[in-house]
């Protein structure tokens, strides 16, 4: 898997906001079913992060994660297909794995990749035995069926992190992505920027032409905003007519360029849309500074203040 592809996959995994969350019955039920269906002591819903595999559900295993270097599931993710290891001691990829030579003594593994709502692979649902074995064609189909159920649950979770009107991320997912981006920036001494955007004179659109027209304006703006951002950035509707953008590796000069491009695109839309109103906005941006910003809230307050300062002088 190329670095660009892996970065895109990790972005999607963190954007859905499922890592390091509490156990949920909807996933635990699936691993219990898998354990009984295949008569194995261990069944997992595993998510493959940058340096670890983390278990959203871990039936029969008393740990929450392992290093990615020890992960069977990372191989299934990289190959993007059902991975079956009938006997780990006969497979040179795994015979010296600490999970094979030590606890829990894995001798059989089968894992089916599970995809996130945007099509990227998040991890696997896998079954593990302490004795060598194989899977019949029917059993392989059953494991794939369970993977599809996991994907359905991911889609349900994603709906909770998505704005129902515009289809972009909502405030919840924006804050989770901000937390993760800030954590990485602190750990790796990297830059990132946050932009807070508020539509100007939006209420008169609703009051004069109705809420359907107001909603259409919000959808249009969200679409333009998302189309302008790169694959590593996250765009969200924070509520009402307020939007946010988080751009890893962006400096203040990058965000100034971005806002200028957005202004030009919106101006062109206003000139050609034949709408009886114009979409107008104010934007405030802030570049992460380790000495000033200890939390996403610190960044949001500063970007919000800058945005309102700009709005006042219009």
Q: What is the CA-CA span between the terminal residues?
A: 48 Å
Number of helices: 10
Total strands: 10
Bin the strand percentage: 15-25%
- Unreliable stretches: none
Detailed description of the structure:
A hairpin with a 2-residue loop joins strand 8 and strand 9. This protein has helices spanning 3-15, 25-38, 73-79, 98-101, 137-160, 171-188, 203-209, 211-228, 252-272, 296-312, and strands at residues 42-48, 52-59, 65-67, 83-85, 108-115, 121-129, 192-200, 234-239, 242-248, 280-287. It contains ten helices and ten strands. Helix 7 (203-209) crosses helix 8 (211-228). The strands form two sheets. Strands 3-2-1-6-5-4 form a six-stranded antiparallel beta sheet, with helices on both faces. A four-stranded antiparallel beta sheet has the order 8-9-7-10, with helices on both faces. It has 314 residues and is α+β, with helices and mostly antiparallel strands.
């Amino acid at each position: 898997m190329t670095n660009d592809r892996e970065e895109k996959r990790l972005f999607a995994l963190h954007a859905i906001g499922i890592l390091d969350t509490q156990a949920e019955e909807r996933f635990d039920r699936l691993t219990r079913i898998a354990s009984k269906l295949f008569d194995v002591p261990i069944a997992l819903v595993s998510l493959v992060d940058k340096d670890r595999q983390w278990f959203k559900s871990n039936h029969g295993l008393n740990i929450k994660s392992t290093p990615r270097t020890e992960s069977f599931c990372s191989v299934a993710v990289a190959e993007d297909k059902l991975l079956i290891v009938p006997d780990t001691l006969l497979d040179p990829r795994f015979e010296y794995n600490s999970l094979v030579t030590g606890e829990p003594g894995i001798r059989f593994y089968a894992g089916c990749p599970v995809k996130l709502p945007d099509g990227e692979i998040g991890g696997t649902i896998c079954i593990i035995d302490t004795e060598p074995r194989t899977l019949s064609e029917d059993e392989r189909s059953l494991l794939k069926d369970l993977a599809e159920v996991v994907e359905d649950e991911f889609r349900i979770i994603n709906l909770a992190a998505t704005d129902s009107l515009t289809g972009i991320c909502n405030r919840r997912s924006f804050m989770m992505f901000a937390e993760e981006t800030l954590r990485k920036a602190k750990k790796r001494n990297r830059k990132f920027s946050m932009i807070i955007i508020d539509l100007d004179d939006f209420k008169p659109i609703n009051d004069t032409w109705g809420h359907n027209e107001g909603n259409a304006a919000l959808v249009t703006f969200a679409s333009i905003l998302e189309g302008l951002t790169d694959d590593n950035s996250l765009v969200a509707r924070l509520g009402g007519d307020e939007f946010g953008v988080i751009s890893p590796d962006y400096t203040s000069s990058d965000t100034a360029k971005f806002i200028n491009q957005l202004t030009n695109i919106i101006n062109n839309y206003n000139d050609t849309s034949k709408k009886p109103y114009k979409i107008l906005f104010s934007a405030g941006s802030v570049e992460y500074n380790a000495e000033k910003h200890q939390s996403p809230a610190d960044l949001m307050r500063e970007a919000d203040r800058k945005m309102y300062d700009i709005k006042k002088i219009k």
